[in-house]
């Protein structure tokens, strides 16, 4: 067992365990901070897929943007509300939770089964690329490549996503505007 | 050697946990967190598959797009949650049943 | 004239029959507007002229057309002309003509006069068709038609309860006779396979050779057939005991009574018997003679005490018909037809004269507002001073009826009585009763007709003191002339040059019948003398009783028996009508209790069944339907829970579906 594998398992366990804690904790603040851990662990896992730029972006956007936003929103909600939510969640296994758990486990089983069933059937494009050696190698400068790709091959999607982001910005600002000012 | 299967299994676990959060959590923010988990699971899949596509970098590019979309979704989602809170004085999804006939 | 002389007797006779029918159609179509009756009058006049033109001594001639066919049986319509039918046709049309003229005055102003002419034309058509029919089936049809026309005319004033009752009575009693006729027809057809009168009843025809037929019916059937035909004749010719309808039939207009119920239709029975005469065997003839004598006697007896002028004449008619029937019974059907002919004229005249009297009395009653029955002879008297012509004409007719010398009645009646006597002599023993009774009846006839004349025209008028308020006039000319015309036919001269001997009358000469009995010359002197002297005696008694009022008429049992017409109506009421009513009541009860009970039971069962079905429907069928509804409702209610407005639930369902889809994909 190489260090690489050990690290992968460590990150995987960290991510899964943290995620489990996130969904099982009653305390919203703790859950949100544990969500940090999940996101970090996920970013770490991306590295094993040789996606260093994605991992960095993950940390930047999620940790720097999304999470801050969430905590900000959490901060905006009043304490009574949070207390109320905690109180109503006192039961260990309420009916919807139980159903959700069953559903989630069902999905996990189905997906695991799928993975297990088809792990031997590697898609053609993967085998072709493996044969031709067209796989991302740890030595590749992915940031360069992604930069080129963004402004050449994926320029349309890139522009569309920028417009989309602008729309989201405006929309979010509009939605969260106070009613009295409308 | 980290194979594709490893990533997929982890991704599946994260996805299901996110699913559970979306379905079970009463707090709207936690539902949003669940969605983020699911998106992350998807991103993990993207990058895991993208590792075998050097010529296009499709996996990583779309992972980035997904991250952006997730961020946008969170932004809009939080704005909506804020509005819902203002309107209903609660973000408990059990109490928000305006869709009921 | 070639046109007239070349016309065949058959088409001529056809015209005679059809002219009144055309008049009937005209009256029926034009209806209320045709009040004058001129069309009917013209039609019957032409018929009369044509029938006179045709009259007498045609060689027997017959014409048939096929009417319809049943299998290989062919049925014909046809006209038969021989002396009998020609005599009858001429008689009917000649008697009908004055009656038509008379009716113009008599029925004037009646609101239903258009119907009157219509019915009268219908009757003439039917009667003329009846007498010239060439086969029995056709004769039967006209027979019914005549009965129907009679029914209509008796009930002409149908708003009057008694008239409605009378025509019902006439109709029902005629049905009995028609039944007999029909049975006779059936037997004849079964035996001979034909209805043709010539084939059946000609000299040496089929009827005389009953037993020579292949597959002949037994002799009993011959008797039955004879009796059946006689039953038909009995009802039509008002023979005892089926005579009861005729006195009631006087409810019709008097002109109708004179034509139908005195002269023509009632004679149809005698005509029928004369036609089927060869079919009648000894037994039947004896029955006929007995019935005829009984009828003649009883009717004359009843006539003695009646007060209604028309009723007296009606019973007189029945009595005279009895004479004719006796004539048939003794085999002297030529004498019967002769008497029929003479009787038609004088009885018609009697009725018309009586009608004139009634007309005046009714008029008088209307003018003076007195309350009396205008037909009751007790309220008349002395009318000869006011209506001398009517009195004279009626007197002539009465003499004819009584069989006084120099009248036609003398010839025909004597022919009958003398023939009967000779027949009785030939038979001997109890058969002497027949001529003796007939002589007695003749004397009674003289008495009652004398009583009628005396009470009506002689003595003092009952309402003489009221004469200032209203006058009694002579009948109008349109009434007198037809009566005078008929009076002409009451004289001997029309029928025979010799006023004494009936043998010389052309009617009898032409029939040229050979009797089964010997002629006894002494009787030809004796009987007329007895009858004439007897009649004179009777009139003297009547004069003493009714004019001089020497002695009060005793109201003894016999009188009451006669006055109440032998209690026959009461007898029928007790023996026939009451049981019929009882039967009807029983049937009604049976119908109500048993039949209706069954129906009710059935309906109750039905109701119960339907209740059961309703229950089944309600709880089983509807239950099933409701169950479906409930299931749908329950499902809906169940699924309503799904629609709880919680996003997470929706999402959960969505994912459940996805999961199920995945499982499906995996399993498959």
From TrEMBL, chain A:
Major subcellular location class: membrane
Any GO CC annotation of this UniProt entry: plasma membrane
Keyword Cell membrane: yes
Membrane topology: Multi-pass membrane protein
Gene3D superfamilies: NADH-ubiquinone/plastoquinone oxidoreductase chain 6, subunit NuoJ
Compartments, as annotated in UniProt: Cell membrane
E.C. number: 7.1.1.-
InterPro entries given in the database record: NADH_UbQ/plastoQ_OxRdtase_su6, Nuo/plastoQ_OxRdtase_6_NuoJ
Keywords, ordered alphabetically: Cell membrane, Membrane, NAD, Quinone, Transmembrane, Transmembrane helix
PANTHER family reported for this sequence: NADH-UBIQUINONE OXIDOREDUCTASE CHAIN 6
Name under which the protein is recorded: NADH-quinone oxidoreductase subunit J
Organism of derivation: Sphingobacterium hungaricum
Automatic annotation (TrEMBL), chain B:
Chain coiled-coil ranges: none
EC number: 7.1.1.-
Key words, A-Z: Cell membrane, Membrane, NAD, Quinone, Translocase, Transmembrane, Transmembrane helix, Transport
Residue ranges of the TM segments: 6-23, 30-49, 61-85
Cleavable signal peptide: none
Highest taxon, organism lineage: Bacteria
Catalytic activity: a quinone + NADH + 5 H(+)(in) = a quinol + NAD(+) + 4 H(+)(out)
Membrane topology reported for the UniProt record: Multi-pass membrane protein
Gene3D superfamilies attached to this UniProt entry: 1.10.287.3510
Top enzyme category: translocase
Cellular component per GO, a single term: plasma membrane
GO MF entries: NADH dehydrogenase (quinone) (non-electrogenic) activity; quinone binding
Biological process per Gene Ontology, one example term: ATP synthesis coupled electron transport
Compartments in which it is found: Cell membrane; Membrane
PANTHER family with a match to the protein in the record: NADH-UBIQUINONE OXIDOREDUCTASE CHAIN 4L, NADH-UBIQUINONE OXIDOREDUCTASE SUBUNIT ND4L
Subunit structure: NDH-1 is composed of 14 different subunits. Subunits NuoA, H, J, K, L, M, N constitute the membrane sector of the complex.
Similarity comment: Belongs to the complex I subunit 4L family.
General function of this protein: NDH-1 shuttles electrons from NADH, via FMN and iron-sulfur (Fe-S) centers, to quinones in the respiratory chain. The immediate electron acceptor for the enzyme in this species is believed to be ubiquinone. Couples the redox reaction to proton translocation (for every two electrons transferred, four hydrogen ions are translocated across the cytoplasmic membrane), and thus conserves the redox energy in a proton gradient. NDH-1 shuttles electrons from NADH, via FMN and iron-sulfur (Fe-S) centers, to quinones in the respiratory chain. The immediate electron acceptor for the enzyme in this species is believed to be a menaquinone. Couples the redox reaction to proton translocation (for every two electrons transferred, four hydrogen ions are translocated across the cytoplasmic membrane), and thus conserves the redox energy in a proton gradient.
Name used for this protein in its record: NADH-quinone oxidoreductase subunit K
Gene: nuoK
Automatic annotation (TrEMBL), chain C:
Keywords on record: Membrane, Transmembrane, Transmembrane helix
Ranges of residues in domain NADH-Ubiquinone oxidoreductase (complex I) chain 5 N-terminal: 67-116
GO MF: NADH dehydrogenase (ubiquinone) activity; NADH dehydrogenase activity
Membrane topology: Multi-pass membrane protein
Chief localization: membrane
Any single GO BP term: ATP synthesis coupled electron transport
GO cellular component: endomembrane system; membrane
TM spans (from-to): 6-26, 38-56, 76-96, 116-134, 140-158, 179-198, 218-235, 256-277, 283-305, 312-330, 336-358, 390-411, 431-458, 479-500, 520-541, 650-667
Organism domain of life: Bacteria
Domain NADH:quinone oxidoreductase/Mrp antiporter transmembrane, chain residue ranges per copy: 133-425
Localization annotation: Endomembrane system; Membrane
A Pfam family annotated for this UniProt entry: Proton_antipo_M
Keyword Transmembrane helix: yes
InterPro entries linked: NADHpl_OxRdtase_5_subgr, ND/Mrp_TM, NU5C-like, Proton_antipo_N
Keyword Transmembrane helix: yes
Record-linked NCBIfam families: NDH_I_L
Entry protein name: NADH-quinone oxidoreductase subunit L
Organism in which the protein naturally occurs: Sphingobacterium hungaricum
């Amino acid at each position: 067992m190489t260090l690489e594998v050990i690290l992968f398992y460590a990150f995987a366990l960290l991510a899964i365990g943290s995620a489990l804690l996130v969904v099982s904790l009653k305390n919203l603040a703790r859950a949100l901070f544990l969500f940090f851990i999940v996101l970090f662990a996920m970013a770490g896992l991306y590295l094993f897929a040789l996606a260093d730029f994605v991992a960095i972006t993950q940390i930047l956007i999620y940790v720097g943007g999304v999470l801050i936003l969430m905590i900000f929103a959490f901060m905006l909600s009043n304490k009574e509300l949070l207390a109320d939510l905690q109180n109503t969640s006192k039961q260990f296994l309420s009916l919807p939770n139980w159903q959700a758990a069953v559903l989630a486990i069902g999905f996990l089983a189905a997906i695991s089964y799928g993975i297990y069933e088809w792990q031997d059937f590697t898609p053609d494009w993967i085998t072709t690329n493996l044969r031709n050696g067209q796989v991302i190698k740890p030595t590749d400068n992915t940031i360069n490549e992604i930069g080129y790709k963004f402004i050449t091959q994926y320029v349309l999607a890139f522009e569309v996503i920028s417009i989309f982001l602008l729309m989201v910005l405006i929309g979010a600002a509009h939605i969260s505007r106070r009613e009295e000012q409308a | 050697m980290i194979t594709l299967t490893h990533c997929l299994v982890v991704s599946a676990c994260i996805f299901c946990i996110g699913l559970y959060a979306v379905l079970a959590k009463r707090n709207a923010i936690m539902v949003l967190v669940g969605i983020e988990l699911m998106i992350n699971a998807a991103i993990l899949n993207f990058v895991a598959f993208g590792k075998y596509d050097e010529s296009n970098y499709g996996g990583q590019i779309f992972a980035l797009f997904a991250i952006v979309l997730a961020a946008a979704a969170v932004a809009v989602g939080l704005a909506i949650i804020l509005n819902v809170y203002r309107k209903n004085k609660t973000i408990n999804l059990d109490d928000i049943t305006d869709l009921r006939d | 004239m070639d046109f007239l002389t070349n016309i065949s007797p058959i088409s001529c006779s056809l015209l005679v029959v059809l002219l009144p029918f055309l008049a009937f159609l005209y009256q029926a179509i034009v209806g209320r507007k045709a009040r004058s009756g001129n069309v009917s009058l013209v039609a019957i006049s032409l018929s009369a002229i044509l029938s006179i033109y045709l009259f007498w001594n045609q060689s027997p001639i017959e014409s048939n057309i096929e009417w319809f066919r049943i299998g290989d049986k062919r049925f014909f319509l046809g006209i038969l002309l021989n002396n009998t039918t020609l005599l009858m046709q001429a008689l009917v049309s000649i008697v009908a003509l004055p009656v038509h003229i008379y009716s113009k005055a008599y029925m004037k102003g009646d609101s239903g006069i258009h119907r009157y002419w219509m019915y009268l034309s219908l009757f003439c058509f039917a009667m003329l068709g009846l007498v010239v029919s060439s086969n029995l089936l056709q004769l039967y049809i006209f027979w019914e038609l005549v009965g129907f026309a009679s029914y209509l005319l008796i009930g002409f004033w149908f708003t009057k309860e008694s008239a409605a009752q009378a025509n019902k009575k006439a109709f029902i009693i005629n049905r009995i006779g028609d039944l007999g006729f029909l049975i006779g027809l059936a037997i004849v057809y079964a035996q001979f396979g034909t209805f043709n009168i010539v084939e059946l009843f000609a000299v040496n025809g089929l009827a005389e050779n009953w037993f020579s037929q292949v597959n002949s019916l037994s002799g009993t059937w011959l008797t039955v057939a004879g009796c059946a035909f006689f039953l038909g004749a009995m009802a039509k010719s008002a023979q005892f005991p089926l005579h009861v309808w005729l006195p009631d039939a006087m409810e019709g207009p008097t002109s109708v009574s004179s034509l139908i119920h005195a002269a023509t239709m009632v004679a149809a029975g005698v005509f029928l018997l004369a036609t089927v005469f060869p079919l009648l065997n000894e037994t039947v003839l004896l029955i006929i003679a007995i019935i005829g004598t009984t009828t003649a006697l009883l009717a004359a007896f009843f006539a003695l005490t009646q007060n209604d002028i028309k009723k007296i004449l009606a019973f007189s008619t029945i009595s005279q018909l009895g004479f004719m029937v006796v004539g048939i019974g003794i085999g002297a059907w030529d004498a019967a037809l002769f008497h029929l002919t003479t009787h038609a004229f004088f009885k018609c005249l009697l009725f018309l004269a009586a009608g004139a009297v009634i007309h005046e009395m009714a008029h008088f009653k209307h003018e003076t507002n007195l309350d009396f029955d205008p037909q009751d002879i007790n309220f008349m008297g002395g009318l000869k001073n006011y209506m001398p012509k009517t009195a004279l004409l009626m007197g002539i007719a009465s003499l004819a009826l009584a069989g006084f010398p120099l009248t036609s009645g003398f010839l025909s009646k004597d022919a009958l009585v003398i023939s009967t006597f000779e027949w009785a002599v030939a038979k001997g023993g109890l058969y002497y009763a027949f001529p003796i009774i007939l002589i007695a009846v003749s004397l009674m006839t003289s008495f009652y007709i004398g009583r009628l004349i005396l009470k009506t025209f002689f003595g003092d008028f009952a309402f003489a003191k009221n004469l200032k308020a209203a006058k009694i006039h002579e009948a109008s000319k349109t009434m007198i002339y037809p009566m005078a015309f008929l009076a002409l036919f009451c004289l001997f001269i029309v029928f025979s040059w010799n006023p004494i001997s009936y043998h010389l009358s052309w009617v009898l000469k032409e029939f040229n019948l050979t009797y089964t009995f010997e002629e006894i010359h002494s009787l030809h002197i004796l009987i007329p003398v007895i009858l004439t002297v007897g009649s004179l005696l009777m009139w003297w008694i009547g004069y003493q009783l009714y004019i001089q009022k020497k002695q009060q008429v005793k109201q003894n049992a016999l009188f009451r028996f006669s006055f109440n017409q032998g209690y026959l109506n009461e007898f029928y009421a007790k023996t026939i009508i009451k049981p019929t009513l009882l039967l009807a009541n029983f049937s009604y009860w049976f119908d109500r209790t048993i039949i209706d009970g069954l129906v009710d039971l059935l309906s109750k069962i039905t109701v119960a069944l339907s209740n059961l079905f309703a229950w089944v429907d309600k709880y089983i069928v509807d239950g099933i339907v409701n169950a479906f509804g409930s299931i749908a409702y329950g499902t809906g209610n169940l699924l309503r829970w799904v629609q709880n407005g919680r996003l997470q639930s929706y999402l959960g369902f969505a994912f459940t579906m996805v999961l199920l889809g995945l499982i499906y994909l995996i399993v498959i």
